[in-house]
Amino acid sequence: MNILVTGAAGFIGYHLSKKLLDNGHNVIGLDNINDYYDVNLKFARLEQLGIQRNIVKTFGNIALSDIYPSFKFIRLTLENKEELNALFEKEQITIVCNLAAQAGVRYSLENPETYINSNIVGFLNILECCRNHSVKHLVYASSSSVYGLNKETPFKVCHTVDSPISLYAASKKSNELMAHTYSHLFGFRTTGLRFFTVYGPWGRPDMAMFLFTKAILNKNSISVFNNGDLERDFTYVDDIINGIVPILEDKYTSSYNPEQLYNLYNIGNSKSVKLLSFIEEIEKTIGIKATKVMKPMQPGDVKATWADVSDLERDYNYRPNTPIKIGIKQFVDWYRAYYNI
Predict the structure, then answer these.
(1) Burial of 285 (0-12, 13-18, 19+ CB in 10 A)
(2) Of the listed 37, 168, 182, 199, which one is catalytic?
(3) Which residue in 288, 293, 248 sits closest to 267, CA to CA?
(4) Which CATH number fits the domain that encloses residue 258?
(5) 201-248 pLDDT tens trace
(6) Per the database record, which ranges form the NAD-dependent epimerase/dehydratase domain (predicted)?
């Protein structure tokens, strides 16, 4: 298989690309390497895959890995329909995992146009390329944020998701609807994955794990929203990757019907952890007590997330098994090594 991974310089995209390459697949990585957060971190992830920074400066040129002979990388935006179409034509892509998107709930309050361009227009271009180039299966990132004002927990895929409270969430709900339409009209498989608060080594600097660790190590205060009355289904990145790969490789169980073209799954740890407990575990791991500044709820945020992953467990034998204590230690160890602390 020739697998296209969009967002390959991103947190989950990097880990997924590495796992697929280690499993012996041909992988084409795509990323626009925008400056939403530190591009040095994005380039450093690519270097782990054998793509050197000096050869990815130009948009549209394919770079070859000096570690993985089966890995190619192209710097490209999903909004560039012509070059995206040419890539599908040239590389004869059979499977797509679309992780590229403008992320972040809070950023969407300030830069709404970015979300429409990347998450709506860009996703439409991916769907069109899949349609026109006989792609067998499109797997794409949705988000737990689509549950919005839903009060019933744990969140189940069958729950109504008609009340998103951020443009980011609305864009992800739109992706699910668009994928359903294309599966119905054009007969190719689409699988949406609603991610729940992913953390781990090489994580995003705008997420809680990274922000808390950085602040505590620098002995700065941390902002704790809703006065700490928040819960999240924190999911270690390896558990996420171990859920995605069998879907891309079609390693489903006998209960799954491959003739069903449109599918949605929650992918999380299936446990809700109190934010203050999460912070306490970071404090224990680092050995420094955090100075907490209690703040009110932020616009677009939700009080609690909790994934029901029974569908993914049934169809793909999904078993998240990384305890918070272990996952936090893995991240802190990586952070200290990466920043020479």
Answers:
(1) middle
(2) 168
(3) 248
(4) 3.40.50.720
(5) 999 999 999 999 999 999 999 999 988 888 999 999 999 999 999 999
(6) 3-253
Are 68 and 21 spatial neighbours (Cβ–Cβ below 8 Å)? yes
Q: How far apart are CA 58 and CA 56, in angstroms?
A: 6
Q: Rounded to an integer, what distance in angstroms lies between the CA atom of residue 169 and that of residue 153?
A: 18
What digits encode the pLDDT tens for the residues 273-287?
Answer: 999 999 999 999 999
pLDDT, greater one: 300 or 165? 165
Length of the chain: 341
What is the reported pLDDT for 254?
64
In a domain, 330, yes or no: no
- Give the Cα separation of 11 and 13 in Å (integer): 6
Q: What is the model's pLDDT at position 246?
A: 96
Catalytic annotation present for 115: no
pTM equals 0.96
What crossing angle do the helices spanning 208-217 and 275-286 adopt, rounded to 10°? 40
Residue 36: per-residue pLDDT: 94
User: What pLDDT does 257 receive?
Assistant: 77
Q: Is residue 169 part of a domain?
A: yes
C-alpha–C-alpha distance, residues 335 and 341, integer Å = 8
For residue 5, give the 3-state DSSP assignment: strand
Q: Which two tokens stand for residue 157?
A: 């895929």
Type of residue found at 12 = I
**pLDDT, average across residues 55-78:** 94
Structurally, the chain folds into a number of domains equal to: 1
For 63, phi and psi rounded to 5 degrees? Answer: -105, 145
Q: How far is CA 96 from CA 6, 129, 174, 195, in A?
A: 8, 10, 18, 17
Candidates 207, 210, 212, 211; CA nearest to 196 is: 207
Let me know if residue 297 belongs to a domain. Answer: no
On the CB side of 205, how many CA atoms lie within 13 Å of its CA? 12
Q: Is 282 within a domain?
A: no
Q: Per the omega criterion (within 30 degrees of 0), is the bond before 154 cis?
A: yes
Close Cβ partners of 162 (under 8 Å, ≥ 6 residues apart)? none
**Range of the structural domain that residue 32 is part of:** 2-196+237-270+307-321
